[in-house]
Design brief:
The chain is mainly alpha-helical. Among the domains are: 79 residues, Potassium Channel Kv1.1, Chain A (2-Layer Sandwich); 97 residues, no CATH class. 57% of the residues lie in helices and 4% in strands. It has a three-stranded mixed sheet. A hairpin with an 8-residue loop joins strand 1 and strand 2. Helix 11 runs antiparallel to helix 13. The chain starts with 12 loop residues before the first strand and ends in a 6-residue tail after the last helix. It comes from Thelephora terrestris.
């Protein structure tokens, strides 16, 4: 059963939450909190008003959800269920405030869980850079490659990132985009040229490169440009051109023909530096 911090007969301290939500009280143990946090240790060394008559109360500024999550990171009980970075961020702030090393260690790992990173990698990057978590910052930077980091960030997210760290991310995206765009000219398809128009491959490939350059300038990742879904409308458009030779027009309907080309291109793009 989940641990109940409201019903602990051996508790010798009550942590009372603050915030704008309803106040909650958590019955805890000074010894455990003092071992986990030098800040709590100092707080508990001071005289507690009314401690002689009842269990002393320690008022905290954090809300109830944050206090409970923090306790679940300290105690040997089931950990907190932090389902988003919005839920994780205040707990991390509190762990830093109270200098709780065991909580910080667990939260740093949670910060780069794939399910949280995929939801909002830029927010994860902002959190990591704010606290100087270099390893987590690098991991988060890789997940931002699938984002338009110029037009998609919210004002709140941008405000949470320093100018220097945002510039660092922009340079990473730019260099990655330039590297991927160069590969569009280095990797060539191995399709036969139409015996009639002699230009089928050249036409679709040039159009593919043009559209791929545009896409890579925004999202410098292989995920979109190396998919058949991205290539299909390009080939279909060329297929509807002037050439009437079956060998030429048939090519557009056999997209599997281009899978090898896309896989080679994907492999080359994925070999580029994928983190800051």
């Amino acid at each position: 059963m989940p641990h109940d911090f409201n019903n602990s007969p051996t508790a010798d301290i009550i942590l009372r939450s603050g915030g704008q939500k309803a106040v909650a009280e958590f019955r805890a143990h000074r010894a455990i909190l003092s071992i986990a946090s030098p800040v709590f240790e100092t707080m508990f060394s001071l005289p507690q008003p009314g401690a002689e008559k009842s269990t002393p109360v320690c008022d905290l500024s954090e809300d109830a959800n944050t206090v409970e999550a923090l306790l679940r990171l300290i105690y040997p009980v089931e950990g907190p269920n932090l389902r988003s970075l919005d839920e994780l961020a205040p707990v991390l702030d509190a762990a830093m405030k109270y200098e709780i090393a065991v909580a910080l260690s667990r939260l740093r790992k949670m910060l780069v869980q794939p399910d949280l990173l995929e939801k909002d990698p830029l927010q994860a990057y902002a959190i990591a850079t704010r606290w100087g978590f270099e390893e987590q910052m690098k991991t988060a930077s890789g997940y931002t490659l699938g984002l338009d980091i110029i037009n998609s960030p919210t004002a709140d997210t941008l405000n949470a990132i320093s100018t220097a760290n945002y510039r660092r991310l922009l340079i990473f995206h730019l260099e990655r985009a330039q590297g991927a765009q160069r590969l569009l000219d280095d990797v060539a398809p191995r399709n036969p040229v139409c015996s009639a128009c002699r230009a089928y491959v050249e036409k679709w490939h040039e159009e593919f490169k043009r559209k791929a350059r545009d896409e890579l300038s925004v999202r410098p990742t292989s995920k979109i440009v190396c998919s058949l879904d991205f290539l299909a409308p390009i080939v279909d458009a060329i297929e509807g051109g002037e050439c009437t030779m079956n060998s030429c027009r048939r090519g557009g309907r056999k997209l599997e023909t281009y899978r090898f080309y896309l896989e080679v291109l994907r492999t080359r793009i994925d070999m580029l530096p994928n983190t800051i």
